[in-house]
TrEMBL record:
Source organism of the structure: Loxostege sticticalis (Beet webworm moth)
Gene3D superfamilies: P-loop containing nucleotide triphosphate hydrolases
Keywords: Nucleotide-binding
Record-linked Pfam families: Ras (PF00071)
Protein's UniProt name: Ras-related protein Rab-24
Family: Belongs to the small GTPase superfamily. Rab family.
Amino acid sequence: MSRCDFKIVLLGSEHVGKTSLVLRFVNCRFNGGTPYQNTIGAAFCAKTMQSNGKDFNIGIWDTAGSERYEAMTRMYYRGAHAAIVCYEPSSLESWARLRHWLQELRTVEEECKVYLCGTKKDLLDAGAVTREVPEDIVATYSQGHRGHFLTSSKTGENVDELFQKIVDDCAADMRLMKNVEELRLQLMKDEAIYKSKRKDFCSC
Ligand SMILES: Nc1nc2c(ncn2[C@@H]2O[C@H](COP(=O)(O)OP(=O)(O)O)[C@@H](O)[C@H]2O)c(=O)[nH]1
Ligand SMILES: [Mg+2]
């Protein structure tokens, strides 16, 4: 089974920590020492996760974030089941951009489950940066969405929790699960047809 059951997209300003979040989650590592590498267009990762004892393949699209690539980014969040919209609590600019993505998502992908993610928690905890985005404003905005997580890709804090909540929410969504089951059945039928055809033509 190679196709994805759930499609997750990461949105947010450049440098906010989207790629680091995906790398921490998928590879359990953090590349703090390496120079910043801008994501071009988007990158894709896949991982198998469990919810309620069942396996699900999740596909994660990490987008570029810069305005330069905005039209392209739209292509990636079309059909997404969930979106992680990132901001840095120490940057009002990144919060303004998050609000922009929330508006976009609401108009384009009504069904998409939205999760707000404040990044680089370790820097806040260590006092290396100061919070600029007030907590009460974040709480107000979070109410209309599936949740808010304050994560650190450096320590890993709350990263697995965020992705697990997404998979649990998707797995509990009856309408979405109906589509997943139908697609799985179709895939099994297609595979069976392909295998029987290959057997017919195989001369060995
Ligand atoms: N201390 C710390 N730095 C982070 C964290 N996440 C990302 N960074 C750093 O922030 C910069 C931008 O991260 P990146 O993931 O490339 O951001 P993107 O442009 O949103 O994909 C990089 O230098 C990362 O090392 C974090 O949780 N803690
Ligand atoms: Mg990136």
